[in-house]
């Protein structure tokens, strides 16, 4: 996605009782978990709240403001990482926000915490243990999980503060054509058509992408008649990307990590969904976000080729929604599930 830059949170100190939370996934997963992270921290004010997450997410973990320390894990894709490098006393409390399988529960159980909260194995004596629901939105899923353990949690508590660094393109419309998998990557030619339409309407457009997406971003920019100064592919730190999105007039992308940055900053957005419904990973309710999706059977979000439902979204419709958001001062109709 981008260079994540310096200034991570401190490592765990072990000087206080510890709450260790496991959520070792990607940027979007981290940001969708912010309401739950905040709830855990409030519930244990005398503890050091530590998040086990990939080392590369260090600046993003810091930016959430939701934990005290970061315990870096290996870059392990979406697999459960080993936690055997934990060198402190057993955590007082361990919280599995990683998934519902036994692997994440077992990784935390190996540390012999005093208390372990997980979907995979409810605590002994729990009167009504939470049950995993495949049709539940990610933010709601983990807040409901915590509430079942007596921890108040609000899925709407997802906003994060913008960074102190300036935006490299304040007030621009930001297009992010990349995604971790081809299934969630709308064709470059369609992004170029949207960019060209926005430029014809007098809007400044910039394109962002990670180090491996330089060719993709160049293709979008070339197709839209844009210059190189408006392409940020693999050149931004996490804070710079966050500032760019926080200061944007509009953010347009697929269902990927930077879209969740737009949600977290309250930046007006148009998000294109394909293999996964926005009912599971979409933006929060409100008038500044639009989710475009053709209903249909779920696909594989990690597949190599664009999902058929994603390909049913045409550039004209996306451009209409983007211009509508801009023309109404960054507001659109409520989140829609139909394109």
Condensed summary:
The protein is α/β, with parallel strands linked by helices.
Overview of the structural elements:
By secondary structure, the chain is α/β, with parallel strands linked by helices. The protein has twelve helices and eleven strands. It folds into two domains: 18-147, Glycogen Phosphorylase B (Rossmann fold, 3-Layer(aba) Sandwich), CATH 3.40.50.2000; 173-327, Glycogen Phosphorylase B (Rossmann fold), CATH 3.40.50. It starts with 17 loop residues before the first strand and ends in a 12-residue tail after the last helix. The chain has helices at 27-32, 34-43, 58-64, 102-109, 138-147, 188-200, 214-223, 238-246, 257-265, 278-281, 308-311, 315-327, and strands at residues 18-22, 48-54, 69-73, 93-96, 115-117, 173-176, 205-209, 231-233, 250-254, 269-272, 289-292. Helices cover 30% and strands 14% of the residues. A six-stranded parallel beta sheet has the order 8-7-6-9-10-11, with helices on both faces. α6 packs across α7 (214-223).
Number of distinct helices: 12
> pLDDT under 50 segments (min length 5)?
330-338
Mean pLDDT across residues: 93
Tell me the count of domains: 2
Strand content: 5-15%
Shape descriptor = globular
Give the % helix. 25-40%
How far apart the termini lie comes to 27 Å
CATH class of the largest domain: Alpha Beta
Q: Biggest β-sheet: count, sense, barrel?
A: 6 strands, parallel
Organism: Streptomyces salyersiae
Pfam families: Glyco_transf_9
EC number: 2.4.-.-
Keywords: Glycosyltransferase, Transferase
Core attributes:
339 residues; alpha/beta; Rossmann fold; six-stranded parallel sheet; five-stranded parallel sheet; 12 helices; 11 strands; disordered C terminus
């Amino acid at each position: 996605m981008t260079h994540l830059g310096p200034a991570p949170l401190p490592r765990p100190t072990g000087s206080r009782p510890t709450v260790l939370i496991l959520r070792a996934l990607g940027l979007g997963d981290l940001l969708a978990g912010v309401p739950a992270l905040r709830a855990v921290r409030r519930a244990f004010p005398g503890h050091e709240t530590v998040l086990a997450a990939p080392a590369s997410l260090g600046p993003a973990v810091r930016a959430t403001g939701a934990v005290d320390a970061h315990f870096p894990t290996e870059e392990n894709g979406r697999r459960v990482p080993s936690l055997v490098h934990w060198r402190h006393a057993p955590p007082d409390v361990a919280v599995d926000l990683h998934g519902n399988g036994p692997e994440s529960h077992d990784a935390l159980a190996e540390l012999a915490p005093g208390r372990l909260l997980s979907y995979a194995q409810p605590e002994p004596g729990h009167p009504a243990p939470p049950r995993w629901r495949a049709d539940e939105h990610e933010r709601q899923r983990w807040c409901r999980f915590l509430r079942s353990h007596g921890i108040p949690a609000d899925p709407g508590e997802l906003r994060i503060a913008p960074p102190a660094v300036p935006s490299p393109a304040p007030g621009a419309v930001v297009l992010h054509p990349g995604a971790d998998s081809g299934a969630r990557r709308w064709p470059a030619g369609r992004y170029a058509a949207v960019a060209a339409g926005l430029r014809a309407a007098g809007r400044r457009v910039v394109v962002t992408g990670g180090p491996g997406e330089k060719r993709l971003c160049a293709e979008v920019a070339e197709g839209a008649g844009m210059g190189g100064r408006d392409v940020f592919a693999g050149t931004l730190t996490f804070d710079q990307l966050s500032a760019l999105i926080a200061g944007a007039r509009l953010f347009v992308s697929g269902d990927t990590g930077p879209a969740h940055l737009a949600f977290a900053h309250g930046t007006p957005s148009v998000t294109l969904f394909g293999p996964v419904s926005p009912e599971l990973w979409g933006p929060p309710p409100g008038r500044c976000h639009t989710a475009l999706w053709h209903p249909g059977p779920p696909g594989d979000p990690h597949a190599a080729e664009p999902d058929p439902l994603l390909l049913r979204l045409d550039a004209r419709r996306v451009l209409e929604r983007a211009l509508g958001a801009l023309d109404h001062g960054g507001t659109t109709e409520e989140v829609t599930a139909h394109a």
